[in-house]
């Protein structure tokens, strides 16, 4: 089962169910004389350390950027911003145009974006037939997360281009623009 990558907790849960079932079969209803599960032990195995953060290679970055450049502007520019600034995903999606100073070549991080379910919690809870997720602006993760980040010419040029596209879409779509 280790080869199939079952988690240790999953295997412990199975053992718990088996032991309960066999205890019921021996002690309560008397189907068995002896509880065979009492002799069963989970094997010890070392779980290899996971890579805590994947560092993308230049080729992977180019592949991702090329994938989204023409099809999904939001994802493309968000990824580009994260790549050039090191911001967390929630910080990138918490940015507004007011946070970007094109003259000083900086962006201000003073909020992030949070996803909450219908009851206001962050844990996944599905209420049948009413699956709604609400996105909120929230506070930064830590006090040091509030910061001003310098941005280079490549990102600055790309963000100006994106802002111009958004302005064009606003004009073209009018009241239906979102």
The helix content, as a percent range, equals 25-40%
Write the H/E string, N to C. HHHHEEEEEH
Largest sheet: 3 strands, antiparallel
Span between termini: 49 Å
Beta-strand percentage range: 5-15%
Computed CA radius of gyration, to the nearest angstrom: 26 Å
What is the approximate shape? elongated
**Major β-sheet strand ordering:** 1-2-5
> Low-confidence spans: pLDDT under 50, at least 5 residues?
none
Count of extended strands: 5
Secondary structure tally, helices:
5
By secondary-structure content and strand pairing, the structural class works out as alpha+beta
Average predicted local confidence, pLDDT: 83
Question: Mind explaining what this structure looks like?
Answer:
The protein is α+β, with helices and mostly antiparallel strands and 178 residues long. Helices cover 39% and strands 11% of the residues. The strands form 2 sheets. Strands 1-2-5 form a 3-stranded antiparallel β-sheet, with no helix packed on it. A two-stranded antiparallel ribbon has the order 3-4. Helix 2 (58-68) packs antiparallel against helix 3 and helix 3 (73-85) packs antiparallel against helix 5. The two termini are 49 Å apart.
Characteristic key phrases:
single chain, 178 residues, alpha+beta, three-stranded antiparallel β-sheet, two-stranded antiparallel ribbon
How would you summarize what this structure contains?
With 178 residues, the protein is an alpha+beta fold. Helices cover 39% and strands 11% of the residues.
């Amino acid at each position: 089962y280790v080869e199939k990558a079952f988690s240790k907790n999953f295997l412990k849960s199975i053992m718990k169910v088996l032991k309960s079932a066999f205890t019921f079969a021996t002690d309560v209803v008397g189907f068995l004389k002896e509880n065979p599960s009492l002799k069963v032990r989970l094997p010890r195995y070392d779980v290899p350390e996971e890579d805590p953060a994947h560092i993308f290679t230049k080729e992977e970055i180019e592949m991702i950027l090329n994938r989204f450049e023409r099809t999904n502007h939001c994802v493309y520019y968000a990824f580009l911003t994260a790549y050039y600034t090191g911001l967390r995903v929630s910080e990138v999606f918490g940015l507004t145009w007011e946070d970007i100073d094109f003259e000083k070549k900086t962006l201000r991080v003073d909020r992030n974006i949070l996803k909450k379910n219908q009851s206001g919690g962050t844990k996944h809870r599905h209420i049948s037939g009413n699956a709604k997720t609400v996105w909120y602006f929230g506070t930064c993760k830590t006090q040091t997360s509030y910061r001003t980040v310098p941005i280079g010419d490549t990102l600055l040029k790309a963000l100006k281009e994106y802002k111009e596209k958004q302005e064009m879409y606003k004009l073209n779509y009018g009241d239906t623009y979102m």
